[in-house]
Amino acid sequence: MARMTMIEAVRSAMDISMARDDDVVVFGEDVGYFGGVFRCTQGLQAKYGKTRCFDTPISESGIVGTAIGMAAYGLKPCVEIQFADYMYPAYDQITQEAARIRYRSNGDFTCPIVLRMPTGGGIFGGQTHSQSPEALFTHVCGLKVVVPSNPYDAKGLLIAAIEDPDPVMFLEPKRLYNGPFDGHHERPVTPWSKHELGEVPEDHYAIPIGKAEIRRAGTGVTVIAYGTMVHVALAAVEDTGVDAEVIDLRSLLPLDLDTIVQSVSKTGRCVVVHEATLTSGFGAEIVSLIQEHCFYHLEAPIVRVAGWDTPYPHAQEWDYFPGPARVGRALREVMEA
């Protein structure tokens, strides 16, 4: 089986989808000739031409508005927002138009668009290249929200997103593009070529949106994470020696509540980890659901580990970033409660 980085896996998903369906189009800022700022679309314009993979002006609202119009007429746009931090000018189009077309038309129209956007920090990008805005999308009815943690899932989930009849927010943790970063920034990063989840089939396959994956089985405590934080959580479990079950959500909306409930009911303890700001982050929704469905199984308060309630600080990157030390302290706190 081929070994791919997440960049290569994302590109392979778009390549296969474009080859299988002439209605799939790819566009965004610098995605054509240049191949994207992270090279995720490299070679697609040369292979499929400038009418199916093309550059746009620097206008996120224009990119998304155009994609919505194309989708209404039967095309399947897979567009790139260069950084998740840049999506705010398009938030109106995403939430008021794309998310509502099916509802407003009573099912006569759908909006089969995918909005790809690199998300998260860990690259010294500062406050305008490090945000994690997933909670702004999970609050909106009509959107699906996907956050892969590895190349295998990235390809399968992106193909499923492109084939989905409704809008999908596809958030790609940029710190995972080239390797499974576990938060130990002082250590060399292991490349995907040496990780089992770097093995990616070269042909077509899809992973159902809305199904979580248990990355590590355990009985002591459930750790729920997504994106980069999955690898941080696994590192924290290894560092502390706690017998934790680590769940990779993969999809935030729809959410695999059954897997969460089964795990927390078994362990009786839970730690929720995400990189985004703590207050009103998606972790709060997870905690609420666990309290609602697992209250009588809980043996300790649920603990959240997240970013600070501040803009992402360039000068204090590794203090803000929820690393394995912070997650480890949460694990010990829950186990000792």
UniProtKB/TrEMBL annotation:
CDD domains recorded: TPP_PYR_E1-PDHc-beta_like
Single GO term (MF): branched-chain 2-oxo acid dehydrogenase activity
SMART domains in UniProt: Transket_pyr
EC number(s) stated in the UniProt entry for this protein: 1.2.4.4
Cofactors that this protein relies on: thiamine diphosphate
UniProt GO BP: branched-chain amino acid catabolic process; response to nutrient
Assigned keywords, A-Z: Oxidoreductase
Domain called Transketolase-like pyrimidine-binding: residue spans: 4-179
InterPro entries: THDP-binding, Transketo_C/PFOR_II, Transketolase-like_Pyr-bd, Transketolase_C
Pfam families (alphabetical): Transket_pyr, Transketolase_C
Transmembrane segments: none
Full protein name: 3-methyl-2-oxobutanoate dehydrogenase (2-methylpropanoyl-transferring)
